Amino acid sequence: MSDPPNKPAVTLVSGDRLPTLDAARVRLRWLTLADASDVFEVFRDPDTMRYWSSLPMQRREQASALIEQIHACFANQSLYQWGVERRSDGRVIGTVTLASLDVSNRRADIGFALARDTWGSGYMSEAASAVLSFGFDTLGLERVEADVDPRNAASLVLLERLGFVREGLLRERWRVGTEVADSAMLGLLRREWRPPAP
Ligand SMILES: CC(C)(COP(=O)(O)OP(=O)(O)OC[C@H]1O[C@@H](n2cnc3c(N)ncnc32)[C@H](O)[C@@H]1OP(=O)(O)O)[C@@H](O)C(=O)NCCC(=O)NCCS
């Protein structure tokens, strides 16, 4: 049966904040200014920011400003950014983002970052899976894209394990500090999405 003409293509989040998404060892939740120190620890690290679209943070106030920006972008429905809270200790160890929400084309971009000392434990596999399931099943997205530096091996391994397909290479797409970087473009379609077994 085809959709009625007035049905929105994508169901955006209503209310004043993002819903909490639960995974086995992490929960994805709304960030508040009380999380600024944890967020600063993530985005100040040169290793974590090596292939990011901006330079490492220098001051804690930049983390507060980021959280305020996340709230403003949620209010205008342009970007959803969850904090990744580790259940065992309540620490916010990273974030996962759905950006460039495009309602009429039913797509968004995914982005993620974790604190350096928490890499390699599979936390982001869990966190990104929870956001992808939410994006496809609840929001009704048909496509999620990722823009990754081709040298960013950990991100590429993670995305391809989640089912993303490399679709192209865009040259000299980013200028961060003194560096110019290409973008590997990856895409995952709703019909290809298979949530990993718990
Ligand atoms: C990308 C990132 C979130 C991955 O987090 P994570 O919790 O360590 O991810 P996972 O453990 O679930 O999976 C990472 C995979 O990459 C692999 N990997 C890590 N470094 C690698 C490298 N240099 N070369 C090849 N594979 C690598 C890991 O072995 C793991 O695969 P495995 O589970 O099969 O062993 C983390 O590395 C990070 O925050 N990077 C900096 C931010 C960033 O670049 N974000 C992406 C921008 S698009």
Explain what you see.
- This protein is of the alpha+beta class and 198 residues long.
- It has a single domain (21-192), classed as Gcn5-related N-acetyltransferase (GNAT) (Aminopeptidase, 3-Layer(aba) Sandwich).
- It is 25% helix and 31% strand.
- The chain contains four helices and eight strands.
- The radius of gyration is 16 Å and the shape is globular.
- The mean pLDDT is 95.
- The structure holds coenzyme A.
- This is Putative ribosomal N-acetyltransferase YdaF.
- Its EC number is 2.3.1.-.
Alpha-carbon Rg, integer? 16 Å
Assigned CATH architecture? 3-Layer(aba) Sandwich
Q: Which spans have pLDDT < 50 for at least 5 consecutive residues?
A: none
How many extended strands? Answer: 8
| Hetero compounds | coenzyme A
| Number of separate structural domains | 1
Give the H and E element order: EEHHEEEHEHEE
The span between the termini is 33 Å
Q: Can you tell me the overall shape?
A: globular
- Helices and strands: which structural class? alpha+beta
Give the helix proportion (percent range). 25-40%
- The CATH first-level class comes to Alpha Beta
Instruction: Assign the CATH topology.
Output: Aminopeptidase
- Mean pLDDT across residues: 95
Main sheet attributes: strand count, strand direction, barrel closure: 8 strands, mixed
The CATH superfamily is known as: Gcn5-related N-acetyltransferase (GNAT)
Strand order of the largest sheet: 1-2-3-4-5-6-8-7
Percent range for β-strand residues: 25-35%
Total helical segments: 4
EC number: 2.3.1.-
GO molecular function: protein-N-terminal-alanine acetyltransferase activity
InterPro entries: Acyl_CoA_acyltransferase (IPR016181), GNAT_dom (IPR000182), N-acetyltransferase (IPR051531)
Pfam families: Acetyltransf_3
